Structure to design on (314 residues):
C-alpha cells in the first residue's frame, strides 16, 4: 500500500465463534434444537477487520490465532474475506472459542467467551513493528491484548495515524492508552470507575474521557441515536436507520470497523463517519448470519461510495 492508500489496521481479539440460531432463549437443563448455525472467526478486532475489508477491499489484523485445531477455520474465514493476518500467537497458544446464541425472533444475542486475557494475552514483545503502519490511515484497538494495544498506539501516534478505540467496557489496563486515542466509540454499557453507564449519561462519560485526553467520543446504544462529543465542546447526535433486527451478533464490531474505514477514507466530519457506520451496522442487524450481510445491496453501495472517494495523500 502507498502512503495515499486508505488501509485499516485492527488490533486485538480473534476467537472462533460457534453460533446457534434459536427461536427463543436457551433454557438450562434441556436439549434445544437450533434453527441453524455457523462456525466463523469472531472477536471485536476480527469482526471489525472483516467489515473494513469489505468496505475498502482489504484490511490488516494484528492478533493471536495460533495453530490449535480450531485455528484452521478462523484463518480460512479471514483469508476468504481479504483480511491480512499478522499472527503473534506464541507456541502453544489456543485460539479462544466462544459460543453465541441468536434469537431469530428478536435479533438479540448472548455471547459466552473467555476473551483474550482468559488465554493470557500477548504483548508483541520481540516483534518488529517495522512496516506495520505502511499504508494505514486508521488503527482500531478493541481493548484486548492491552500491552500490545499500548505499543501499537504509541507507534500510531508517532506516525500521525488516528487511533480508534472500541470501548465496549472499561479496562484499567488501557487507562494509559487514552491520551493517544483520537476517537473512542463507547457502548451503552461502558462505565468508567465511579461514573454512570454511558447509555444513561453519554455526555458525562464523554467528559471523563476528554479529561483523559480522548479528542472525540461517541456512544452507541442499539437503535437509539449515536451521541458524539469533542474535546473543544462540540456535541451532537446521529440517527440510526430503522430496520427489523433479526441478528445483532457483532453489530457493534461492524459499526467500529465501518467507522475505521470511514476515518481512513477521510469521509468527512465525525457526524458523516458515524452516519455511514450506522448504515452498515443497520444492514448487519437486518440480515441473519455472521457474513451474509456483507453482500447486501446496501453494503455493496456503501463500499462503492467509499472506494470511489479519492483519499488525500499525507
Amino acid at each position: 500500500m502507498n502512503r495515499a492508500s486508505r488501509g485499516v489496521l485492527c488490533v486485538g481479539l480473534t476467537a472462533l465463534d460457534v453460533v446457534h440460531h434459536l427461536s427463543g432463549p436457551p433454557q438450562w437443563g434441556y436439549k434445544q434444537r437450533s434453527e441453524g448455525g455457523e462456525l466463523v472467526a469472531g472477536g471485536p478486532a476480527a469482526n471489525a477487520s472483516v467489515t473494513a475489508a469489505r468496505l475498502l477491499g482489504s484490511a490488516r489484523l494484528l492478533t493471536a490465532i495460533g495453530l490449535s485445531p480450531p485455528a484452521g477455520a478462523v484463518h480460512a474465514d479471514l483469508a476468504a474475506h481479504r483480511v491480512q493476518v499478522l499472527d503473534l500467537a506464541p507456541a502453544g497458544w489456543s485460539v479462544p472459542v466462544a459460543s453465541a446464541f441468536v434469537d431469530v425472533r428478536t435479533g438479540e444475542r448472548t455471547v459466552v467467551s473467555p476473551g483474550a486475557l482468559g488465554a493470557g494475552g500477548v504483548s508483541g514483545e520481540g516483534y518488529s513493528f517495522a512496516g506495520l503502519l505502511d499504508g494505514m490511515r486508521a488503527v482500531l484497538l478493541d481493548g484486548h491484548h492491552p500491552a500490545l494495544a499500548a505499543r501499537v498506539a504509541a507507534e500510531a501516534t508517532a506516525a500521525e495515524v488516528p487511533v480508534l478505540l472500541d470501548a465496549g467496557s472499561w479496562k484499567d489496563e488501557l487507562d494509559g492508552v487514552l491520551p493517544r486515542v483520537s476517537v473512542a466509540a463507547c457502548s451503552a454499557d461502558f462505565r468508567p470507575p465511579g461514573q454512570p453507564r454511558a447509555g444513561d449519561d453519554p455526555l458525562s462519560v464523554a467528559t471523563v474521557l476528554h479529561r483523559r485526553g480522548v479528542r472525540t467520543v461517541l456512544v452507541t446504544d442499539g437503535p437509539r441515536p449515536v451521541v458524539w462529543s469533542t474535546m473543544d465542546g462540540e456535541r451532537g447526535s446521529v440517527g440510526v436507520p430503522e430496520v427489523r433486527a433479526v441478528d445483532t451478533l457483532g453489530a457493534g464490531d461492524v459499526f467500529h470497523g465501518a467507522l475505521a474505514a470511514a476515518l481512513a477514507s477521510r469521509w468527512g466530519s465525525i457526524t458523516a463517519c458515524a452516519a455511514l457506520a450506522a448504515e452498515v451496522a443497520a444492514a448487519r442487524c437486518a440480515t441473519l448470519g455472521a457474513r451474509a450481510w456483507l453482500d447486501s445491496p446496501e453494503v455493496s453501495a456503501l463500499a462503492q461510495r467509499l472506494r470511489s472517494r479519492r483519499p488525500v495523500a499525507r
Remarks:
- Residues 270-285 form the longest helix (16 residues).
- The two ends are 13 Å apart (CA to CA).
- The chain has seven helices and 13 strands.
- The longest strand covers residues 15-22.
